[in-house]
């Protein structure tokens, strides 16, 4: 059996939810499970996080997968419905919809449903990606209040663009506008994503919406999850399955892109871009083997990658190689690769078998 595998630490997921509860005491937690639970397996994560107050997904397909998997908790669909026929389905399945656009609002006015649908009005407070513009918010709110098949009062939601930058005034501006626009309205409010849960307590309101923190990672550049007391939920590991001595000057892999600057030992690991390990990881990207980080050597292939174990290597075939996990934070790998932890964790492919541990 090929040794590439992902281990999902159930106790770590629960621990991270506890950390979030301590950071936002008294607030409700909408645990973000979109994109297959950030690549961890949506149902596995939902069952681990039974104590969350609601789950957040991107679309109705994801919400249905949760219901089919036995999840009874409230589910919020963050992009809302794409087609009118989803409206009665969402009501029936107890999914809350976000309404972010005039077209959705109009559809909701025209398509009745039973029981009444829970709605979050999405306000564009400055990210300019989704949501009603400030000058259109009051009218949208009024129209929602008049729809008899919408649960009243509607929730009020916006998203922060720069909460991971402590010194960026944009968050303060967004917060100010969000408060102004929703002043005096009775609905529940939600603004905080992971970086805001950590760094912007004044944005916590009624519901926080953490994603990345649940998976044990830091959204703040230069930090890792452990800096905030979080535990990484995903370990991506494999084994050394070939070893060879190479002489100074010998080249490794496709394009002969790397050469040995001195005699050394090269280990080949069963992990490649066909498993979701990033192909653009440069030589030097760390891989953890036998208590130390060793550098990636040459291009990542579809099924394997090579590392420079050094001339004194005592590695044996079958030794465990960790691509990321507790001993090598995914944030460190992401930064070496020029991307973010979100991207790496979402990219692990279905070829890799997943196992739950610490249940
Ligand atoms: C994905 C998402 C979040 C969670 O973001 P993190 O940075 O992972 O905490 C929160 N709100 C919305 C609207 C999202 O799409």
What would you note in describing this structure?
The protein is an alpha/beta fold and 359 residues long. It contains 11 helices and 18 strands. Strands 1, 10, 13, 14, 15, 16, 17 and 18 form an 8-stranded mixed β-sheet that branches. An 8-stranded parallel β-barrel has the order 2-3-4-5-6-7-8-9, surrounded by 4 helices. Strands 11-12 form a two-stranded antiparallel ribbon. Helix 10 (330-337) packs across helix 11 (341-347). The mean pLDDT is 97. The structure holds pyridoxal-5'-phosphate. Pyridoxal-5'-phosphate binds at residues 32, 34, 78, 159, 193-194, 209-212, 219.
Secondary structure blueprint with pairings:
Layout: E1 5-9, H1 10-23, E2 28-32, H2 34-38, H3 42-48, E3 54-57, H4 60-68, E4 75-77, H5 86-92, E5 95-99, H6 102-110, E6 119-122, H7 134-145, E7 155-157, H8 170-182, E8 189-192, H9 194-199, E9 207-208, E10 234-246, E11 251-252, E12 258-259, E13 264-269, E14 286-289, E15 292-295, E16 305-308, E17 320-324, H10 330-337, H11 341-347, E18 354-357
Parallel strand pairs: 1-18, 2-3, 2-9, 3-4, 4-5, 5-6, 6-7, 7-8, 8-9
Antiparallel strand pairs: 1-10, 10-13, 10-17, 11-12, 13-16, 14-15, 14-17
Pyridoxal-5'-phosphate is lined by residues 32, 34, 78, 159, 193-194, 209-212, 219.
Residue runs with pLDDT of under 50 for 5 or more positions:
none
Q: Percentage of helical residues? A: 25-40%
- Total number of beta strands: 18
Head-to-tail CA distance between termini: 24 Å
C-alpha Rg (nearest Å) = 23 Å
Q: Provide mean pLDDT, rounded.
A: 97
User: Would you list the SSEs in sequence order as H and E?
Assistant: EHEHHEHEHEHEHEHEHEEEEEEEEEHHE
Oligomer: single chain
